[in-house]
Amino acid sequence: MNIQVVRPGELGDSERARWRELQKADPSLDNPFLSVEFAVAMDRLRDYVRVAVVSDGSGIKGFFPYERHSFGIGKPLGGFLTTCHGLISAPELKLDAKALLRACKLSVFDFDHLVAGQPTFAPYEQDVRPAPVMDFTSGFEAWIEQVKVNSPKNLKTVRYKERKLGREQGELRFEWASADPEVMRTLLAWKSDQYRRTGRVDRFAQPWIVELTDMMHAENSSDFAGVLTMLYAGDVPVAGHFGLRTATTLVGWFPAYDTEYARYSPGIVHHLQMAEAAAKSGLHMVDMGKGGKEYKDWLKSGVLYVAEGRISRPSATAAVHWVGRTPFNKARTIVMDRPSLYKAADRVLKGFGRVRTSMQQQEPSNAVVKEPTGAR
């Protein structure tokens, strides 16, 4: 096998077509974060994005998109922003993983959402986790029946709140695939507020991530698109979501809602309406991603599997990386695995978020005093 490393933007039309061909041929690769369009977009915004093109005498056999950071530290494409990564190839392709790292000039590659079972990486999988999905291959009605089986009480409660929201705030309207940039700005503002309230890092404080979402919002082909949805009560937006899709799968990415309407559980109401709209549009599945929220358990009608693990070549960099990352990864897995620990951690972060917000609200009165003479 020959391995050539290039930037995704350097791929020609025939190479991009081959990428799409390999992706469509394997159902386990049916995820927009594995699409060539996402890799090219990331390459426009980040200097460290690369793709290894694997070929033999008969042609291209696979693509391995990744990020190469300082000291040869390798990370999945998109890192913390994405919920799926891996090798885009025929299912049976098996490479020497350490030889692949050597060709990519990587000392270590740490993964946590890898397509499970890929022969190249399977020996290095340390854990495999389920990612719940809403499966519409048997139709929307079959899916909603499964939700009733999973948790009839929750579904009944959400439907009640849905009707109450419509009665008290205005007739509900759901918009699928909005092209309006102002709707996107509204959603991202809600999401930034959520990050701050819950003690998380505000991803949209980084301009390149905002630019990425704008680029993805502009994508609209049969094989790849950004899908912006919004639920309205009357003319007022109350909950929305922005995600990416292939021809058949939508992946959850950025859901958020207006906290003024929190008593109506607008986020879950939105998810039910989004599921119906996705099924009507011809999609087969909504991938909700692994871990996190309880609502995923009662909305799911199937699971996919993603793997966590690490590959390294002997080096001082790999040793230092192991010391810094492995204990953290194990602790995170333990927390995500146990609902009681997850809820406790979530409460701590929300408490931190409230304290930080309170401190920020007090800052303006002091900031004026410290402003230097002549500042504008």
From TrEMBL:
InterPro entries: Acyl_CoA_acyltransferase, BioF2-like_GNAT_dom. Transmembrane segments: none annotated. One of its GO terms (molecular function) is transferase activity. The keyword Transferase applies. Residues 154-296 form the BioF2-like acetyltransferase domain. It comes from Nonomuraea polychroma. The keyword NAD does not apply. Residues 356-376 are annotated as: Disordered. The lineage of its organism: Bacteria, Bacillati, Actinomycetota, Actinomycetes, Streptosporangiales. Pfam families: Acetyltransf_6. This is CelD/BcsL family acetyltransferase involved in cellulose biosynthesis. Keywords: Transferase.
